[in-house]
Request: fold
Amino acid sequence: MVKKITITELINTLLDMDNPVPAKYIYRLSDLSDDDLAKIKAIWHQIPEWRRQALLEDTESMAADDTLLSFTALSKFALDDPDDHVRALAIQNLWESEDQTIVPKLLEMMSSDKSEEVRANAAYALGQFVYLGEIEELKENLLHQIEDQLISVYRGDDTLLVRRQALEALGYSSRPEVDDFLREAYSSGNRDLLASSLFAMGRSANSIWHPYVEKMLTHQDAEIRAEAARAAGELEAKSCRDLLLELVQDENEEVRQAAIWSLSEIGGEDIQDLFMNLYNSTDDDEELNFLEDALDNLAFTNDVGFFTLLDVAEEGELHYDDEDEDEIEIYLKDIEDLLDIDIDDEDKE
Reply:
């Protein structure tokens, strides 16, 4: 049985400036109890800035590799750290958090923190709560408050970085004025605003942006091509499929990977063969791992692709052709076998 590291041992290690903090002690910072957190708070000011920054960088990396770890308690506390970069890192650690209690703090930091990095990170983090509001997992009045402040920041005179992050957070919003912001940024002539508009379009789940994204897949700037490729995948824009296939051979690695991943999200004939050919033609470990993930995602996309066989007509009726009907029969038979049930003809209709 592995002995649990005590809070005293953890604190002594954190205060030992002559040695790096071993991974097992950083793991101990996950799921801190209230009592343990209070003891960490009491000595936090004794830890130098560089070490506090390194701790939050390490916790972010570990949480990304192991979803069972949660450094939320430590990160929420670090939002009030006197060091700008520590505060910014604390927000990054909370980017995927659904803890609504941090919303007021994020709104305050976005609007008034002295650090541009912190304000930008706070704006980006609020996008998660816009998304939660759109799926009705956040109170409507709180959603509107977040949207109003993000709009105010985007329309305001803060730095371009902060305004871009506000726009990207608004990508999830169904507020009608957001469409105008995206068109404005897209046509602004500013490369960075264009990139953010494409990022936000990808978040929107709105097919009106398909032609906008498709046009940018051939942009001379690699970053713009990459953002457009990612947006095409998030939007499941089948009209972009042929251009994405071309981008698989792009000279820029980021563009190539964005195109591959988006093709795994869109699916379609021969994509698996393409991925396997790419897999068999490389011996780079990182690329092999990426292609394995893309193949897994493609398998998921193709499995649920059954639902895209059905097109909803304007009148609300469902239409499918003879070939689709055969696939539906196979799909229903698989369900029957899996659940050991019989689906009668009326239910099938």
User: Anything to note?
Assistant: Confidence is low (pLDDT under 50) at residues 305-324. DSSP finds 20 helices and two strands in the chain.
